[in-house]
Amino acid sequence: MTTPSYRPAPEWETDRWFNAPAPLTLAGLRGRVVLLGAFQMLCPGCVQTLLPQLQQAHALFDPKQVAVVGLHTVFEHHAAMTPVALEAFLHEYRIGFPVGVDRPGGPGGMPLTMARYAMQGTPTLILVDGLGRLRMQRFGHEPDLRLGASIMKLVDEADAAGPLPDAAAGADRTGVCTPGQGCD
Amino acid sequence: MTTPSYRPAPEWETDRWFNAPAPLTLAGLRGRVVLLGAFQMLCPGCVQTLLPQLQQAHALFDPKQVAVVGLHTVFEHHAAMTPVALEAFLHEYRIGFPVGVDRPGGPGGMPLTMARYAMQGTPTLILVDGLGRLRMQRFGHEPDLRLGASIMKLVDEADAAGPLPDAAAGADRTGVCTPGQGCD
Amino acid sequence: MTTPSYRPAPEWETDRWFNAPAPLTLAGLRGRVVLLGAFQMLCPGCVQTLLPQLQQAHALFDPKQVAVVGLHTVFEHHAAMTPVALEAFLHEYRIGFPVGVDRPGGPGGMPLTMARYAMQGTPTLILVDGLGRLRMQRFGHEPDLRLGASIMKLVDEADAAGPLPDAAAGADRTGVCTPGQGCD
Amino acid sequence: MTTPSYRPAPEWETDRWFNAPAPLTLAGLRGRVVLLGAFQMLCPGCVQTLLPQLQQAHALFDPKQVAVVGLHTVFEHHAAMTPVALEAFLHEYRIGFPVGVDRPGGPGGMPLTMARYAMQGTPTLILVDGLGRLRMQRFGHEPDLRLGASIMKLVDEADAAGPLPDAAAGADRTGVCTPGQGCD
To answer: Which end of chain D is more exposed for a tag (fewer CB within 10 A), N or C?
Structure first.
């Protein structure tokens, strides 16, 4: 059903985890689609676009099907973006999904997982399928419509017969028009 | 693979079409997922959220798999939202996907297709699967992430083995950070 | 206190008015600062930025000091942007300040007032001081911070001793942090 | 010309300054309007609204008339929001105006200046007039249009005869319409 040409996603190397009872490994998430967002807490594009997108994905998808994971890949300003600072950041920005700290020690000040994936910078979005294969790696901001479709495609490779996502959830009714009542 | 409980989507009734060489029918789109956006050109929520979302879906998905269609469902200010006015509107807002004009004559000033679907107002988003069944109807604004996932789910019911959407497309690199160069 | 080098703002030529008990003239507004916004109802930049900005200015400034006026300067799609269509548009977008219809008949399909001011297109923002002189004419979107300062500068030329604007109004507290309660 | 009822703005107490050749004092800025923005680097509302607004004010107003100053008022997560972390933050977010670090030691973990002004939290915007008097203190987000008007009002109390701000600057022409070329 799928071609065998995708390479295995490298395991990550982490020092600490937040919002998780125990360290997460990529191997331990086999069977689920993994949406991994690599960020730095002082990266403007990460704060403005990546993290809200991960939060939305975390709220939308069934955690048994999709694991949303953050990875703090500090490659500059190491004295500023410490685990203590990250913990405060995650608290103030109300980040609820698991976040691991990429282990320092790669070339050029990069942490190890960032180097293994040859990431260009932050933010980077990565999709790993249920078989542990690297299916997407994108540096920069990925539009929500495309990301939603990509995640669902990988979910459906296992089973395309499930329901539409979040069918009971309401829609935003700002600016709608109704007969008799005009527009809000 | 799918349950038989979904009802057939009612055929639409239209008077005119823009951005289409000939009138479109729902029956004629069988085999494709149909994303139908019902709007009025003077509905603020339609202009701000629905139409840009339909444009993005039109650009993202393979037209052989997903047909993006607009439906102008005028239920108020009929003298203002004429086909002539709609044509100018579509031109100025650079709308490139097919748009049909819902036929007047339903109860309470509503047009016929709007009445058949019992739409509450505008904007309304509708998803019809490849078998012509009504799978989603949402009044208000649907988040992009969820809509992207819902469309892909219906695409995958026919064939979940295709590629991720738009794999070659670039990402937005506003505010990214790179080693050695800092943040933009 | 001011230099005499500014030219008088040309009087406008209008056919109809909305949101006004009687036609407005520029001469009749002498003594007040006039913020004139020239727009077309099918101009995307006007709908997205100019009209919300005019609404905000209309709510913020004392009408005895600042008159906020819209001018519908149709230079294309005349059959679509009729007074009937404009009336529906103003209703749906909840526009509460006076709006005049620029009189057709200028060169190249432009209306008369647009031609007199040699406007380049829509949106165009114009400021007239209390002495009826043209003090600013800007094609495109003017940032709120600069526009607020420019309006106040002209108000202050008559009397700089008044209070700060809207001193009693509340601020938006989205995302604020407070001791003991953290961040919203 | 002005009433004598405004109280003097309390002097601030700071430990360090960034983007300034020497420590700034409020007394040393007498004669200029001071726009002071109190923030914390991990406060979402500060990052999203206050700091961009201060940057825009810094770019717009003549520095001989208006001094834009940031004050880092850390009242929680002290171990995360150190001066070292602040320095990295200011670099990554391209903050170019002077920023002082409010001195720790007030009641309840608050720093001294924050306590003197009885600030409720962050962000807080403060306006001090050219005579050193406290004219506005606002907790939360102040709209740009109103802030621009308030700043100019205080500038004009000294001299209302100056030019409009930034008369040579261009406007944003996204979505404009021009005769013959339609809308962008």
So the answer is: N
